[in-house]
Amino acid sequence: MTKDRTPSGKLGINTQLVRAGYDPFDYHGFINPPPVRASTVLFPTAEVMDTHAQKYTYGTRGTPTTNALCDAINELEGAAGTILVPSGLAAVTIAFLAYLSPGDHALVVDSVYGPTRHFCETVLARFGIEAEFYDPMIGADIERLFRANTRLVHTEAPGSNTFEMQDIPAIVEVAHRRRAVVTMDNTWATPLYFKPLEFGVDISIQAVTKYPAGHADVLMGTVSANAEHWPRLKETNGALGICGAPDDAYQVLRGLRTMGVRLDRHQQSALAVAHWLESRDEVARVLHPALPSFPGHDIWKRDFKGASGIFSFVLAVERKQDFKRKAQAFLDALTLFGLGYSWGGFMSLALHVNLFDRRVTPPPAGGPVLRLQIGLEEVDDLIDDLERGFAAAEAT
User: Which residues in this protein are found as N6-(pyridoxal phosphate)lysine (predicted)?
Assistant: First the structure.
């Protein structure tokens, strides 16, 4: 007699993460799915080959490994379908290419991920698509920026590097009334702390390079769509031939199982460090949405279930000509924080944020902006390291 393995009732998030997307008994009871690597897939007959009347047809169209990750992400996002692409940036760009055409106008939040801005100002411009950048705090007032040819609104909350919050429900209401697609880069919160599709967003984007993978050794992005917009996304992905690799999908699936407990640790440690930074005279301002002092805190508290481990602070420096020198002295004195891009892994990271590309929203005043990714180290050790940074900046 076969045991019924269907869970009863609603599962908690960590239970869901352990089970999502894969049944071990589909592969003889092995807990992790095998990485199925494939380009060519054989067909049993010419008729099946002609009609594609089997689940797998070619490596770019999916394998059991990549499908297991897509199924897991669909479950977490509440999506009709998900595609895998080689990076977080590719996830954003393929979404834009799916829903924009020459002559269209797109509204893109001014606190957007820098490479996304570069794509808008180069590739989209070359295709005859105009991207207009808007204030992240605009809310329902975004309607005044709409034109007859506005087809897409891109959101990112919190914003890259400066962490402005957006009123997603207000923006969605306007965009849908004006018949525009809403996309959202939700890498910071992940579907554990914010589910864009439940708030009316059409396309949810993640750089699963970050928290789902969790170990700073995988590049991958996911794009998840609601039922209305899934066919167009799937068609565009197939036409472009962009796909995620099975080995990378395997690693992201493995990381996904522990994402809940890791993200909780990132959140708690980051908040402890952020509160400590608020008490320092060397800090002009801490940019973290979960702090009551942050301008977008009320929106975060209303819509989000948690906060991740990345935020920024403004190092208090009086003279602008001293910004870079003081920032670099601070960073060079750190021994536990690595100096590197990306985030979401187990190691803490720091960098000096460059905000030269902002078009609408001015950079925070008071000094250079330093971004911290709080990893899984002990908080007291990280605070000791930051003390070294402050001492070095003061002495410079």
Answer: 210
